[in-house]
Specification:
By secondary structure, the chain is an alpha/beta fold. The chain has helices spanning 27-41, 58-61, 100-103, 119-136, 148-151, 153-158, 190-194, 214-221, 230-235, 246-251, 286-299, 321-334, 347-359, 372-381, 397-403, 414-419, 434-450, 452-464, 469-487, and strands at residues 11-15, 45-51, 64-72, 78-88, 92-98, 143-147, 172-177, 185-186, 207-208, 211-213, 224-227, 256-258, 308-315, 338-345, 364-368, 384-387, 407-411, 427-429. 39% of the residues lie in helices and 20% in strands. The strands form three sheets. It has a nine-stranded mixed β-sheet, with helices on both faces. Strands 15-14-13-16-17-18 form a six-stranded parallel β-sheet, sandwiched between helices. Strands 8-10-9 form a three-stranded antiparallel β-sheet. The longest helix has 19 residues, at 469-487.
Length: 488
Amino acid sequence: MAQFVSQTGMRVLLVASEAAPYAKAGGLGDVVSGLAKALKDRGHDARIVMPLYRSIDRVKHGVAYKHNQCTHFGRGEEVWCGVHEALLDGRVPVVFMEHGRFFDRAGIYDDGTREYGDNAYRFTFLSKAAMQWCKDQDWIPDVIHVHDWQTAVLPVLLRTWDRIFSPLSGTATVLTIHNIGYQGVYTPEVMEFMGLGQEHFQPDTFEDHGRLNLLKAGVRYADAITTVSPTHARELLDPIGGCGLGPYLGRRQPDLHGILNGTDYELWNPATDRQIAAPFFPDHMEGKLACRDALRSHFGLEHSSAPVVGIVSRLVEQKGMGLMQAMLESAVRQCSIQVVVLGTGDPAAHAFFDGLAQRHPGKVGVHIGFSSELSSRIYAGTDFFFMPSLYEPCGLSQMYAMKYGSVPVVRATGGLADTVVDSETGLVFTHPEPGDAYHAVERLSRLWYDMPGDYRRIQRRGMEQAFTWDKSVADYEDVYRKVVARYR
């Protein structure tokens, strides 16, 4: 094993299905890495455990094989895996679990068309293998911080398999809910693999209308629960906002904390980003003009006076795809705008945006897929950034957009409401309806053509915002200390 240098402070293990830059399907990967680096910089011994997916470039990221590990599961099953290690940004140890049966696949969660049917087994393995690694290496964390449904089962296993006579019996757990719309609902047979009996298949733990709900069980067993913005923490207690888990989260309300995600400005900064056409600063915006010209050329858009509106998103209903499908064509025709889209999601959304580009050549550009480089170029080259989400726990895109001088146009929900101030750092609309979304686009058009001074003021204020990890990591430290003190 590599000789990682311990620091003063707490030992914190982050167990997650994603961590940038190794594997990322959304904001989760950015948050896990950003938080781990911030904790390390504050003097804590923070480490990450994640899967070694096929897509991870081992040479590029310095991922090195160390040893094999055996983890015991239910039914007397032993699962062996390879343990690999790397250093994130030269300072955060990352442990990768290699197991071909579960992770030697094209995608993280799906094959591009449908979810893998054994995801419950794959991430149960990750969770228990992370615990086994701690015991084998005699590195016992003060806190294990798990993320979303994929690793929500770890607190359950810690309080059942490792309840007593285990080196981990004194370890506290924190569960962060990044997106409650995805809860890990499967058939209950996976409980045999977990090694848990039917006594745990109860309405206040795993059982959910006859199926197994991994996130629900995590809510029951984690010592503390966080979500990624203060507004969303309140929304989770609502019957609709909690997506069925509102009553169970309500029982844990004293242990529920809303902590706004931080942004890693080491990566997301137009002054230093080498992936964009030219650097720029709030007082020197010439480079942004070059970025806009380059973006237009990339997507084959007309070089005109029209504002360029960017969308970088998962193309799913949560992100407001229904609203866009109902109003965006009219907005392109009537509001004198250009639109560029980057994302992947529902086939119907793919078809809609592809068709929109075909019907409006020179005005709409679409890239179905994901590219970190292209996302940076869109933030840098657009004048506005559109996020009409039905719900948005935190959102990072609006923070990136502001830093890159792309004025966000968002719906007032979750972290969007906590980070964008109407007519100050962006434009905000209230109702999740096509009419309200269309009027928001009308507003951005008027702001661009009729009020350029106001546009520049809003753009500059957005660029001056600093959603750093400094406050967020202090809030996490507070949660960690409370659960460690209470549990012990």
